[in-house]
Amino acid sequence: RRGLPAALVSEKLRNWNEELEYQAAINLVRKYFDSHDSRNIPKIVRRLSTKGFKAGTVSKVLEHLRDMSP
Fold first, then answer.
1. What pLDDT sits at residue 58?
2. What distance in Å separates the CA atoms of residue 69 and residue 18, rounded to the nearest whole number?
3. Residue 47: how many other CB atoms lie within 10 Å
4. pLDDT at position 38
5. Cα–Cα distance for residue pair 41/2, rounded to 1 Å
6. Cα separation values, 3 from 8, 9, 25, Å
7. Which carries the bigger pLDDT value, residue 38 or residue 27?
8. d(Cα 16, Cα 29) in Å, to the nearest integer?
9. Contact at 8 Å (CB) between 28 and 64?
10. Is 4 helix (H, G, I), strand (E, B) or coil?
11. Helix axis angle, 55-68 relative to 41-50, nearest 10°?
């Protein structure tokens, strides 16, 4: 068998919540997009969507970026 054991995956998913997902999305945006590139909203939306983030989480991240922009 390949991949992670099913028990480990189940345990991690049980502890997953919306706040953890939001923080993971923010960290991903910070990692891949510098401050100049963080204005490229379609690129950020595509990246988060392809990584499997929920639409609500993507919206929260965009609101965060909008609040942080000068």
1. 96
2. 24
3. 17
4. 67
5. 36
6. 11, 10, 23
7. 27
8. 19
9. no
10. coil
11. 150
Show the tokens assigned to 29. Answer: 């945006």
pTM of full prediction above 0.85? no
DSSP letters, 14-41, are HT--HHHHHHHHHHHHHHH--TTGGG-H
**pLDDT range class, residue 39, cuts 50, 70, 90:** confident
Q: What are phi and psi of 35, to 5 degrees?
A: -60, -35
- Can you say how many angstroms the Cα of residue 27 is from the centroid of all Cα atoms in its chain? 7
> Cβ(65)–Cβ(44) under 8 Å?
yes
CA-angle at 23, arms to 20 and 28, nearest 5° = 125
